Amino acid sequence: MSKKSRTLKKARAQLRGDARPVTKVKDAGDAIAMIPYLLGFTPADSIVVQALVGPRNRFGPCFRLDLAAAGDAQTQAEYVTRLVDHHRFGPVMILAFSDQPERADPVVRAVLAGLGQIGVSIIDAVRADGDRWWSYVCADPSCCSPHGTSYDVETSRVAAEAVLSGLQRAPDRESLRAQFDPDPARRAEVGAAVDRLTGSASYAATCVVAARHIDSMIADSLDRPEMLTAEEAARLALAVQDLTARDRAWMLMTRANADRHFALWRFLMRSVPDAVMPPVGSLAAFAAWLSGHGVLASHAVERVQQVRPEYPMARLIADALEGAVSPLTWDTHLRPQLQGAPDLGPLAG
């Protein structure tokens, strides 16, 4: 049995079928192995701030940024410090994923200085190049060699637990971005259906009826997106062109059902012509954010903004991503407040 197989077997014995990875962080190697699963892809030339929670230092929220260019390290460090302070992170680990120490070192050292000024506890700060990691805060050669400490993500205990709990990692961000590329064959079919519906003499009346029945349309589609006919997909996409219907679709999302909504709206996003895609893509982006997949949300927003740069809902989601707003705030604060505003009107035009 290979080392990787033995690691998976041991992790399987320690995890319940419905468990999320709640592993204690024992060292920098654990964090380096887990980050790709928490982000959904293997980062490169990136700085990641990983919050640790509870008395056993379990993995909490994290965020990632591209490493700043030369000369911009201080500006990036100030931004990172503001985010950590705003979200009241407790102890954190700072991880730079890069094989360029001349690029990573200034950023990490500036971040360490900024977090030190606001009293944030630093468990460790490291740079990982894919094979070895180096600590910025530990100079003890018995545990943190100046020549680096080797690591292997594939045989890591925490990576095995991540896999068994259902987390996945793509090789790079381009693989995630490709999830939102149009499906040419499907798009041609749905586009033809959109043209038929919009060219119909009864189109206006059809839109009114669809907007009134948006709840049932979504409920009927939620668990079978890939089985939707071209006309069903076109009707749903056209229905959410109406801002009230789109916002109703938005309000139907919760943390519990966000994954299902994401599957539906992403499928439609790839199926519809650009002319009707922005509301559909924005709903996909929001569902991705709500389900905890911020990187996917950013790619969905990017795709919407390529088609309609100033679409307000996409811009609102982009602002939430930039501010590292937690999806937990939706169910507990934002959604109840918005549902309780009877004369709210469209949330974002």
Brief characterization of the structure:
By secondary structure, the protein is α+β, with helices and mostly antiparallel strands.
Structure overview:
By secondary structure, this protein is of the alpha+beta class. The protein has 2 domains: 3-170, Cytidine Deaminase, domain 2 (3-Layer(aba) Sandwich); 176-339, no CATH class. It has helices at residues 3-14, 28-39, 73-86, 101-117, 157-164, 173-177, 184-198, 203-212, 214-221, 230-239, 243-251, 258-271, 277-290, 294-307, 312-322, 328-339; strands spanning 46-53, 58-66, 92-97, 122-128, 132-135, 149-150. The protein has a 6-stranded mixed β-sheet, sandwiched between helices. Helix 4 links the parallel strand 3 and strand 4. Helix 1 (3-14) packs across helix 5 and helix 13 (277-290) packs antiparallel against helix 14. The N and C termini lie far apart (58 Å).
Gyration radius, rounded = 23 Å
CATH architecture field of the largest domain: 3-Layer(aba) Sandwich
How much helical structure, as a percent, in the residues?
40-55%
- The helix/strand class is alpha+beta
N-to-C SSE string, H for helix and E for strand: HHEEHEHEEEHHHHHHHHHHHH
Q: State the name of the first-level CATH class of the largest domain.
A: Alpha Beta
Mean pLDDT: 86
Number of strands: 6
Task: Give the count of structural domains.
Answer: 2
Instruction: Kindly identify the CATH topology of the largest domain.
Output: Cytidine Deaminase, domain 2
Strand content: 5-15%
Output the strand order for the largest sheet: 2-1-3-4-5-6
Q: Determine the N-to-C terminus distance.
A: 58 Å
